[in-house]
Specification:
Blueprint lengths: L2 H4 L5 H8 L3 H14 L9 H5 L10 H8 L8 H9 L16 H12 L7 E2 H12 L5 H16 L5 E2 L1 H7 L2 H7 L5
Antiparallel strand pairs: 1-2
Helix pairs in contact: 2-3, 2-6, 7-10, 7-11, 8-9
GO molecular function: calcium ion binding
InterPro entries: Calcineurin_B_homologous, EF-hand-dom_pair, EF_hand_dom
Organism: Oikopleura dioica (Tunicate)
């Protein structure tokens, strides 16, 4: 890799501030971004993500990739950092509006499930997620029952759809904070 390719983008400090990341972390993410961008396009597309070893084994891989993509089907470095920043470790002192707060992590999880970006999940969408995750190992009728139960328990039985804040309230934020954290 030439010196020009490894140089941080001019807006690296702005990205660090927006994403609440140390500049050293932005530098590491830049190197990872460049590794994924094998064709040196300056953006990533779905094919670049499919090159990640064993990523294709994740049944939610297509939806995870979609989280990274903008309207043009690409992910620039800033967008890459914004999404990855959510996975920074957090602790009890992390503000609820921080990029890496358990609440932000839960909202990202909701976006993963909300494939149509309607800010609501209905029973059929919960069923589809469950089907992706367990495949044919559980009978369809049982999955439909589980999906219905998820809606009822998440909303307290008050609605037939889950909204982002329902998921935030329903999940144990300590567990979300730990399980959705990664070092990079």
């Amino acid at each position: 890799m030439g010196a020009g390719e490894s140089k941080l983008p001019d807006n690296a400090e702005d990205i660090a501030a927006t994403c609440e990341l140390p500049i050293k972390t932005v530098n590491r993410l830049w190197k990872r971004f460049q590794e994924l961008d094998k064709e040196k396009k300056g953006v990533l597309d779905a094919d670049d993500f499919h090159e990640i070893h064993s990523f294709h084994l994740n049944p939610l891989a297509p939806r995870i990739i979609d989280l990274f993509m903008d309207a043009t089907g690409h992910c620039d470095f800033e967008g890459f950092c914004k999404l990855v920043a959510v996975f920074q470790p957090c602790d009890k002192k992390t503000a609820s509006d921080a990029v890496n707060s358990p609440q932000s992590k839960a909202r990202l999880l909701f976006r993963l499930f909300d494939y149509e970006a309607k800010c609501e999940l209905h029973q059929n969408e919960v069923f589809e997620i469950l089907l992706l995750m367990v495949g044919s190992s559980v009978e369809e009728t049982q999955l439909k029952h589980i999906a219905k139960r998820v809606i009822l328990e998440t909303t307290g039985g008050t609605r037939h759809k889950i909204e982002p804040e329902d998921l935030v309230r329903a999940l144990d934020m300590d567990t979300v904070g730990v399980k959705m954290s990664a070092g990079y």
